[in-house]
Amino acid sequence: MENRTDSVATLPQAPLPPRAEKAVPALSGGWPLIGHLRDFQKDPISLLSRGWRERGELFQFRLGPRDFFLFTGPEAHDFFFRAPEDQLNAKAVYQFTVPIFGRGVAYDVATEIMDEQLMFLFPALRKAALEKFARIMFKEAREFAEALGENGEIDLPHAMNELTVKIASRCLIGEEVREQVDTGFADAYHDLQKGINTLGFFLPRLPTKAHRTRDRARERVAELFSRIMTARRDSGARPDDFMQTLIQARYKDGRALSDDEITGILLTVLFAGQHTSAVLATWIGLELTRAPSYLARVREEARDVYGEAGSMSLESLKEQVTMEHAVRECERLHPPLIMLIRKILKPMRYKDFVVPAGAMAMVSPAVSHRLPHLFADPDQFFPDRFAEPACEDKQHSYALIGFGGGKHRCMGKHFAYMQLKAIWTVLLDRFDFERINGFPAPNYGSWVTGPKEPCRFRYRRRPGSSVFR
Length: 469
Description:
By secondary structure, the protein is α+β, with helices and mostly antiparallel strands. It has helices spanning 37-42, 44-55, 74-82, 98-101, 111-119, 127-148, 156-172, 175-179, 185-193, 198-202, 209-235, 242-248, 259-289, 292-306, 314-319, 321-333, 365-368, 413-430, and strands at 58-63, 66-71, 88-89, 151-155, 340-344, 348-350, 353-355, 360-363, 431-435, 456-461.
């Protein structure tokens, strides 16, 4: 989920010069009334990649009554992410999150209020907090591995969702919520996740089964969080967690946050720290198990890092460069958010093109991360592209945009990297894994794009002792 972070300086928008306007090239193959909707629903990335090959870094296409403009490549990304909010607006697009996060938070409030709410998050991302989180991630991953036993089968997306919910709830919300993960919270949260879908993006209030389930789940989560907050206030307990930070927080005008605002911000944080991580964790397992030579290097690095320490820390996770390159390569090949969208509020000029107000602007990590002039053999899993001397991601600050960019760059990127490295370091130390099914295609029916099911793995405990005590 995209989040606003630090402010990025934007250049003043001069009036468009009175020179001849050049029309943005249109993607071929649209149908009357529906435009490219049919092909987009079938495989949006194939459609958008074709547009880039045919029309270049900027082209337009139509989905039903809406016109979209795709910006592709680092230079176009820079233009997209630096545009001011009154020209390219995220709030107008992400209204589908309001039924999930609730009223009065995130994309349901004015920009200045949203900025204040996001400022409340920074204590959870300081070094002291990340050091504590590293220990929690290690503990949760080890308990999860222990519960798997010696051998068996797992549904990998389900397993990664379960584990990341436990980690994120304990790190980002509070111990009481973590204690109820197995007794109702995980089910309610999973029902909320179903509200993040392509149909919900266009029609978030449509009374579908998934949306009715989403709304009931939001009520259950709100009731749970409110009970915990009431109990804390009654007892005077002040645990060191993010829920308590919000209970004690105040807006600039001195007003305390309501329970529903706290619930909404906690859900925003939880989605940002869990949903995309669960999907990316699944892709990491899929890619590593079909790259045995690189997998061996990951395990060798873990032995070097943990052979003497025997436990995990923030510093030890930073030392796992080989593992981090695998994580970043999966972010490149399988970005959980395949499209980032803004509404165009004012006409804008990009090079010789003028993009009209009222349409939608878009960047696609899934398209841009496979540009052959940026990434060698772009369809191949090759984590060493991030190492010296290649450093392909350092060609431009917007070569890799899996976590967004500009003022909406996801502030939880480092938390996500830590979590993914911790999970797979522990699991690969304990088990050998083998895919039961073939390598899955992406499931474009979900807003956060994971693999199509079935996605099952066999696992067996590895011989020899663990690097962890």
